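Table S2 (continued). Query chain:
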Amino acid sequence: MTDERRSPAYAPLKGLLYLASLLYGVGLFGRRLFYRFGIFKSERVPLKIISVGNLTLGGTGKTPFVIRLVRMLDEDLGKKTSVLIRGYGWDEQTMLKKKLTDTPILVGEDRARSAHKAIKLYGSDTAILDDGFQHWELSRNMDIVLIDSRKPFGNGYLFPRGVLREPMSAISRASVVVFTKIDRKSPGLEAVKEELKQINSGLIFLEALHKPAYIYDLKVRKELPVTFLKGKRVMLLSSIGDPDYFNQTVAGLGADIAEHIIFPDHHNYAEGDAAGIIKRCNERKFDFILTTEKDEVKLRRMSLLSFGGYPVMTLGIEMEITSGKELLVDRLRSLYTRQGAK
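Corresponding output:
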């Protein structure tokens, strides 16, 4: 809940969710104690583990950042990297495999086992733990936390009253904070940085944005420049964590948005959805349907490359680090040059 609905009618619901968030917080605290006192143990594996995660629910851009990080480790440090992914959200793993064709993507709940496979089968010296900030079963060498620049901590409450997966104080475990969607940043972002520095003075800050890279026509399998969108009237279709940012990005490229059909994050399209989408399309005039790369993966699985003859195109994006990249490279390099580092 984000508190965008302020009617008194929602007060009872907010109260119930607040009580649930207290219970959630107690559960988190208990879990931390079990690890602190050694009742639960984090497993160490003989390769560098870099976790990429977040403090909040919703789309902060983990998948495009993981892709950027793999390329940095390869190009700047010459490392043989694998990606360890839990497997929730098969659209994300498919997208990783599509974008990182030379990188092993290991899927499984037991990510310590996946790390051992990365060493044995692929000779990896580094593994990226995707969505790993709350995955304490596997010890890591670095925690990178992504924070949405527009609304860093939602309404400040823990789930389910808010969007926080952990209290803000958990940032004490991190080494690097990446403020994503910096092109839409909150005016209070510098104050947020100061607040985080008070919790963890060793943090370094990066800034990044989702850069539109190309338009892809699914039917004719052709890439077009993003300038193709200018002046076009489009129907948006998405099932991602942050549909508003997709909307803003497309509008920023000069397209006229007829309507945005939004499904929940990680929604698996079914045949029944197609009929509803076609019905909505029949009520509008537009040039083509535009969707995201994650949605393209799911549409391909259902062979939904057009809806009732309406063409479908994808907006391809890349994560661009606009500030702090050299700081990150230096900190990554230090993982391998510390005395006794393996």
